Fold these 2 entries.
Entry 1:
Amino acid sequence: MTRRITSAEVIVCAPGRNFVTLKITTDDGLIGWGDATLNGRELAVASYLSDHIAPLLIGRDAQRIEDTWQYFAVGGYWRRGPVTMAAISAIDMALWDIAAKAAGVPLYQLLGGASRDRIRTYGHAMGRTVDELAGSVQALVDAGFTAVRIQTGVPGVDTAYGVPDGDGRYEPASAGSRPVEEAWDTPAYLRHMPRVFAEIRERFGEDLDLLHDVHHRLTPIEAAQLGRALEPHRPFWIEDATPAENPEGFRVVRAHTTAPLATGEVFNSIHDYRQLIGEQLIDYSRSAVTHVGGVSALKRLAEFGELYGVRLAPHGPTDISPIGLAATLHIDLAVHGFGIQEFMPRDPVTLDAFPNAFRFEDGHLHPGDAPGHGASLDEDFAEEFAYTPAYLPVNRLTDGTLHDW
Ligand code: KDG
Ligand code: MG
C-alpha cells in the first residue's frame, strides 16, 4: 500500500518571530508539519524547499521516510550545509508526523515507546547584574526548574549574550536591514564568570544544576581556564566553550578540566560529531531537530552518543518553532541516551499560531498523546503576521575586531 504526497507547501510567517514551516499533504488526506526555520537566513531555506524540493516530493510515497531522507541528503549530490539540512529536517519531521497520524499514535510510540515518564528541562536565567540574575534564577526555581542556564552581563561591556536590554524575554534576532553590533571582552569575562558561579552557588545551594553558554567565544586554552575556574562550583555543563568547528580544540579543554562539555547547536550533520563523540571530547550533543536532519537524524545522533556516554540535550530556543520543539520532545521521551532539554518560553502569539499538544509541569515537558507529533500551524491566524527581515547580532572586541557572537 502506498500513500502518495499530493502537495508540499512552504509557509513563511512571523507570529512573534520569523518561522519557515512545511506542510505536506497525502492522497488519503493526512497532513504532516515540519519546521525549517534557520534564524536570520529563513528565505534561503524557503526557496530551497519550494524551488528545488517540493516539486520532487509530489508523488513520492510518504511512508518511505528513510529513502526520502537519503534521496535529498545523498541524492542531491551537494552534501550537508545549514540550508540543505534545515529543508531535509522539515521533510523528515512532516513524514514522521504523517506516519504516526496514520497509525493513530503519538510519534514516540513509533520511535520505540517512552523510555521515561517526563523530560527534564533547563530554563534560561538572565540578568545584567548578579542580583538581577539571582532574581531570575529564583523565578525559575519557583516555576519548578531544577536546572538553570545562567547568563549575565560583564562589567565594562555594554551588551551580553543571553540577557535582554530591558525587561522581558530575550530574543537574539532583531528586525532591521542589518545585524546589531554587540561587544565582547574575553579577559573581563574570564575574571567575572567564576565570581558569578560562586555567588549563585552560594545563594542557591548545592542541589540546583547550573549551566552556562559561552557561545563559541573562547580559544581552547581560554576555555580550559574557564573550565578549571568553574569546576569548584560544579557546573552541569559548559556549552560551546570554543568554536565547534575545531574538534581538536576540545582535546585541549578536556586535558585541563573535568567540567562537562556540551556542543553542537550549529552542526547540521552527524558527521560533525564523529571526532567529538568518538574521542569522548564532549558529554552532551546539542543539535536541533530542525538543523541536523529531522527526527531520523536526531535519533541517530542519540544512538551514536549512547555508545560513548554522550547524552542528547537538544537545542530548544525560540527559533525552533513549536513544531520543531514538539518533534524533539518525542525523541527525548523515546531514546535511552537522553540528558536534558532546553526550554525557552515562547511568545504567547507564537503558541496561538502553532497549536500543540506538549505540556510543561514542574520543570518537565511531555509531548502529549495526540496522534503525530502534535503540533501544527494555524494558517489563517499566521497570515496576519508577515515575515520581516531580522538578523542575529555580530560581535566585536573592544578594539573593533570581529569576534564570534
Ligand atoms: O539562533 C541562534 C540561537 O538559537 C542561539 O543563540 C541560542 O545558543 C543558543 C542556545 O543555547 O539556546
Ligand atoms: Mg547555545
Note: The first helix runs from residue 42 to 57.
Entry 2:
Amino acid sequence: MSKSGLPARDARVCWHPWTQHFGQTPPVPVIRGEGAWLVGPGNQRYLDAISSWWVTVHGHAHPAIAAAIGAQAALLDQVIFAGCTHEPAVGLAEELLARLPSGLARIFYSDDGSTAVEVALKMALQFHRNRGSPRSVMLALEDAYHGDTFGAMSVSARGVFTAAFQDQLFAVERLPAPGDPGLLPALDRMLDHRGSEIAAIIVEPLVQGAAGMRMWDAATLRALAGKVRSEGVLLIADEVMTGFGRTGPLFACEHADVSPDLICLSKGLTGGSLPLGVTAATEEVFEAFLGADRRTALFHGHSYTANPIACAAARASLALFDERSADQRRTLEAVHRDEMSRLARYPRVVAPRVLGTIAAFDLADSETGYLSSAARGLTAFGLERGVLLRPLGSVVYVMPPYCTRPEELRQVYAVLGEFLETR
Ligand code: PMP
C-alpha cells in the first residue's frame, strides 16, 4: 500500500462506521458511480450488489437526481424550517402523501433512518400524553434493528450491536421475532395484560434487514395491525430499508394492505443521493399536538430539517418510480428466484429467500450471527471479481440498484456460485 495513496491517507485520519480497524483490510477507493457500478482508480469497476448500504435505488449518479440537486443548490441551499417553508419540502410532502398508504397525512422531516425512528417514538409517547392518558410502554420484536441512536437502539434487539450501552437503553417489552409462530399469541397476552399501558409497537414490515434479511409474511403483519389497533396502540412501520420499492411495491405495508399510524422512511427516499429522513403521521396523531398550550408541541428538530437540496433530490427520485421502474424490479425478482433455486443445491446454502429486489441465504456454519466468520473472505473474493458484497455475519444477501441488468445480476450469482464451489 503506497504511503500517499488514498487508503493510506484514510488509515491515518478516518474512523469508519461498523468497522473494527484492527487488522482491517484497506477500504476500496471509489471515484465515481455509474448506474449499478462503482468505479475506482485505474478504471477498476465493482457492481454494487448491496446498493451501498441499501440506499441506491435507481442507480448511482442518476442524471435527473444530479440535475435536481445542482439546480436546487444554486437556488436555495438551506433555510431554517421552523417558521419558514419552501417548495421542495411542501412539494415532496404532497407527492409522498399521494403515494403512501392511505391515512398518512403529515410529513415530519429529519436526517436519516435513525432520526426518523427517534421522531416516531417521541410522537407515539407524546401523542398519548397530550391526550391525557399517558402510555409509557414500547413494544418491539426480537431481532429488530431500527438504527444506532439511543431510542432506536432501545427498540432494537439487545445483542452485540447494543451490548456496550445496555445500561443506558430504555426498557422495552419484547415480542417473538415475526417469523416465530409464537408472535401473535404473545401479542394477544401482552395486549390482554397491559394493553392500556402500551404506546406503540414498532416493526420492520416483511423483512428484518440487519437481523439477516429475515422475511415474514403479510398475513402476520395484517393480523398484528388489527390486534394493536383495537387496543389503541399505535403501529410504527419502520420502512427505512423496505421503502421505495425494495420489496416490490413502493412500500412493504402494501403487501398486507396495512396503513400504519406512523411510518419511518430514509435510504431510498432521495434515491440514495443525500441523507434525509421522514416520519409520516396520520392526522389523528398530528391533531393530538395541537392546542393553546405550547407544551403540547413536538419539541424536535434538526438544523437541516427539510433541507431543500435533499428534498429536491427526493422529488426527482420519486418521479422515477414509474412503470419502467416497476418492470425493472419485477425482472430483478425473477432473476433472483431463478438464480437462488440454482444456489439452493449447494449443501451450505440454507433458507434461500427472495422478496422483491432482496435475495438472501444463510451459510451453514457452526457459528451463526453477526460475528460468525462463515462468509469471511466473501467480500475480498467478490471485489477481486468486480462485485461489491458485504455479508451480515453468516447471511449472504444480494440487493442491487433497480437499474441492474439481468445479465449483471447473473454475474453476481456466478461469483457466489464460484465462492460456494471453492470454499
Ligand atoms: N431502520 C432500519 C430498518 C434500517 O435498516 C436502518 C439502517 N440500516 C435504520 C433504521 C437506520 O437508518 P440510518 O442508518 O440511516 O440511521
Note: The chain has a mean pLDDT of 97.
